[in-house]
């Protein structure tokens, strides 16, 4: 059977564990808030009113693509494309192409960064494999101006972050919403986790310290996974409302 992402791909390993996926979206949540196009996320109202619900909705689409047979994955990507076109029609404005590209590039960066924080360093070949999957995703979405290889992506990613990110009133409000929906303790864990994986440009704009307190806790958490205690820890720190969705992220 022909798959969009091969069964032995490093991308499936990255997106097949709840730990890694939660880190991916923790990082993306930070960078989303800085996007100059973040007003689009406010247009439908879903992100500020239910940031966790939006998270699991996005995860669901990603899983359909990464773990699906090729034709089914392409159908899902086409559905995402059409959904965004409806939003554009309702607002009577087009979402900037660079905004689409930035989101795609976030997924590449945080896929790599999250796996490296929780597991091990990736080889250049593995990073190129991550890039290739999302590059094909972007091409199917009809995005323009995409870098065509990993080295080109590194240069374009740096340039795009300089031009497309800023701290705005939306940034402040979105982080308030994160705290409101997560509570103080979980919000603290979120921001400390973000410090581990966001690029320097994002760190500067959000005034994050370079040292995360989670860096001292992660070695113990990794040991807990070998002892099969990580599920117990997740139950303590993650919202019970989304417990089923979180454990459903584990595929490997």
Task: Give a quick precis of the structure.
The chain has 252 residues and is mainly alpha-helical. The protein has 15 helices and no strands. Helix 2 (18-32) crosses helix 7 (97-118), helix 7 runs antiparallel to helix 8 and helix 7 (97-118) packs across helix 9 (150-164).
Secondary-structure map:
Blueprint: H1 10-15, H2 18-32, H3 39-43, H4 46-49, H5 51-66, H6 70-91, H7 97-118, H8 124-140, H9 150-164, H10 169-182, H11 184-197, H12 200-206, H13 214-226, H14 230-237, H15 243-247
Helix pairs in contact: 2-7, 2-11, 5-6, 7-8, 7-9, 10-11
Description:
By secondary structure, the protein is mostly helical. The chain has one domain (10-246). The chain contains 15 helices and no strands. The chain has helices spanning 10-15, 18-32, 39-43, 46-49, 51-66, 70-91, 97-118, 124-140, 150-164, 169-182, 184-197, 200-206, 214-226, 230-237, 243-247. The two termini are 19 Å apart. 27% of the residues are buried. The mean pLDDT is 88.
Keyword list:
252 residues; mainly alpha
| pLDDT averaged over residues | 88
Share of helix among residues? over 70%
Shape: globular
End-to-end Cα distance, whole Å, is 19 Å
Largest sheet: none
Instruction: Give the tally of structural domains.
Output: 1
By helix and strand content, what is the structural category?
Answer: mainly alpha
Helices and strands, in order, run as HHHHHHHHHHHHHHH
Strand residue percentage: under 5%
């Amino acid at each position: 059977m022909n798959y969009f992402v091969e069964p032995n791909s490093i991308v499936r390993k990255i997106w097949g564990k709840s730990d890694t996926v939660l880190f991916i979206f923790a990082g993306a949540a930070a960078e989303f808030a800085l996007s100059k196009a973040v007003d689009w996320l406010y247009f439908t109202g879903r992100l500020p009113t239910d940031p966790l619900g939006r998270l699991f909705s996005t995860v669901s689409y990603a899983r359909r693509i990464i773990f699906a047979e090729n034709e089914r994955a392409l159908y899902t990507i086409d559905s995402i494309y059409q959904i965004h076109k409806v939003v554009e029609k309702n607002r009577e404005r087009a979402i900037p192409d660079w905004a689409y590209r930035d989101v795609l590039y976030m997924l590449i960066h945080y896929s790599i960064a999250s796996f490296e924080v929780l597991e091990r360093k990736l080889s250049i070949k593995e990073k190129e494999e991550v890039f290739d999957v999302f590059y094909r995703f972007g091409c199917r979405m009809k995005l323009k101006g995409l870098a065509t290889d990993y080295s080109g992506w590194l240069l374009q990613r740096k340039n795009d972050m300089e031009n497309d990110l800023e701290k705005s009133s939306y940034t402040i409000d979105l982080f308030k919403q994160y705290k409101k929906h997560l509570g103080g303790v979980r919000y603290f864990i979120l921001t400390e986790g973000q410090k581990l994986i966001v690029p320097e440009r994002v760190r500067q704009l959000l005034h994050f310290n370079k040292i995360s307190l989670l860096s001292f806790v992660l070695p113990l958490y990794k040991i807990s996974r070998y002892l099969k205690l990580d599920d117990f820890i997740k139950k303590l720190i993650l919202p019970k409302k989304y417990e089923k969705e979180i454990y459903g992220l584990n595929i490997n």
